[in-house]
Amino acid sequence: MAEENKQVISKTDRKDDNVVYIGSKPFMNYVTSVVVQFSSKNKKEVIIKARGKFITRAVDVAEVARKRFLEKDNIRVGAVKIDSEVFENQDKRMVNVSTIEIVLVK
Fold it and tell me: No. of H helices and E strands in the chain?
């Protein structure tokens, strides 16, 4: 009976479905993800998030997606938010890590 009440949340129901988190995967994987969000999923905005050494990659992903793949769609940068987070590293020390959030708008 308890299993009947469980709800399965699919990927399309997720709140952050239009967010692309930048990491160490190949560059074009992220560009493709942004392009698919606008083209196939008809999203009005896509948020690109990164922190630390991946911030420059996030900027590059946003610009390549806009200027090479989505040029005819008139995608623009809606907002850029920069911040920092504090977390504990492997040596049990508290460190600050810069973060960026780039909002692309159709």
Answer: 2, 4
The total domain count for the chain is: 1
Pair 43, 18: CB distance under 8 Å: yes
Read off the CATH number of the domain in which 82 is found.
3.30.110.20
6 within a domain of the structure (yes/no):
no
Whole-number Å distance between alpha carbons of 32 and 22: 12
Q: Which domain holds residue 71?
A: 15-105
Nearest CA to 77 out of 86, 68, 89, 65 is that of 65
Tens of pLDDT along 16-60?
Answer: 789 999 999 999 999 999 999 999 899 999 999 999 999 999 999
